[in-house]
Known about the structure:
This protein is an all-alpha fold. It contains 10 helices and no strands.
Amino acid sequence: MLLRYALCAVIAYLLGNFTTGVYVTKWFSNLDIRKVGSGNPGTTNVLRTLGWLPSALTLLGDVLKGLLGGWIGYWIAGEMGARIGGAFAVAGHNWPVFAKFKGGKGIAASLGAILAIEPWFGLGCVVVEAVVVILTRYVSLASICAAIFYFAITCICRWGEWWSIAFAGILTAMALISHRSNIQRLLAGNENRLDFHKINQLSKNRKKKK
């Protein structure tokens, strides 16, 4: 069984190395998203750089990585394999070996991993993220709140299931670690908010160029 767990981890980690944002931005604009804006290849930087559609495709691709990591893990080694696969897909996204360990922040990939195992908890995370973004326009704060919500709801609803709580704790820890700089900026009051007017204008300009 240990060999099966190791196989789950390796496959999911390599799957996580597929950096969706890099390929999406090159397709739409021939840009390297890692050299634009915040330099992060995740959904938010793509949104601020290219607008809604490229961002949505990036989000979908990153969610699918976590989802597939969990599903493949389940197929190989059951429920424990699903959790191992999901966690390693997120790790591969955050710290991809083929990109010098410089990846995204893992929120979309984490959502996919959660949806593969606990769909209702995953939907709850989506609601928390959406509400916080709408109220504050801070994506980083919304992501942190969603990660903490997932850990809290897992502890409440899955108390006694150490594997579920450990999985939630690992995903939450990775989310907080990857958002260290955002937390510092939030505390200092200089974190960037989403500018919906600017994003809408980017999308309009991209359509005109076509």
